[in-house]
Amino acid sequence: MPPDIRSWWEVPSIAHFCSLFRTAFGLTDFEIEDLEDALLLDGSKEDSYNRFLADLHASLLKGLFTGNKDINADNFEPYLSEVLKIRWQDELGKPNPLSESPYRQLTTQQKVEILHDLCDFRLDVGDVPDLLKGLDADSLRVEPLGTDASGNVYWYFYGTRLYKETPEENSEKKGPQWMLVCSTATEWEELAESFKKSKNRDEKMLYQTLSEDFVPEITKMIDTKVSTVYSHYLFV
């Protein structure tokens, strides 16, 4: 059974990073579903998904090797292994999985962890301040939309998805737990409606935020996405 990567907070974090810094870092434009499919199918016979991840890694790695623009989807693994040796093995005492196995044989969890850290490493490079000069500082921060009466925290990164973080004290598992709670217009509307009559202060504020600031815009975004997909199939 494939892992439920939609419950991993690192995946929307990676997708948000790539969306936010796409132009600055020369990254491919993609939907979060593309990333999830690629992570789950990589190593199978789906060559297009393998290429997607390879291109993404190569684009991020180019920024870590000054003057070396020859990194591409076909040769990125040695460069990635070198980065992991320094940043994981040497600095943190953490094993470099690429020293024992090729990228395609890594687990989905390992691939997600590597890609998430690679995004962080890219922000450590000295060219970042100049590349990000035109970005609004507020757009660089991800803050929760609000909390419910049970202490669950709701997070929006970008796109049409909303995630819920259940704090460790409310969870049967170790550490905070994440889950995808909204990805369709109906789910957004139903979640907002569930807080409409609440007398809890936090939930009243959450209802206002969802119903006024997000549901109308998310609905438009979903309609646009559906129209785009429909048009694509009409002309294929």
Automatic annotation (TrEMBL):
Subcellular location: Nucleus
InterPro entries per UniProt: CECR2 (IPR029614), DDT_dom (IPR018501), WHIM1_dom (IPR028942)
One matching Pfam family: WHIM1
Record PANTHER family: CAT EYE SYNDROME CRITICAL REGION PROTEIN 2 (PTHR47092), CHROMATIN REMODELING REGULATOR CECR2 (PTHR47092:SF1)
Protein name: DDT domain-containing protein
The DDT domain, residue ranges: 14-65
Record organism: Nematostella vectensis (Starlet sea anemone)
Gene Ontology CC entries for this record: CERF complex
Alphabetic keyword roster: Nucleus
UniProt entry tagged with the keyword Nucleus: yes
GO biological process terms, semicolon-separated: chromatin remodeling
Domain WHIM1 per the UniProt entry, residue ranges: 89-130
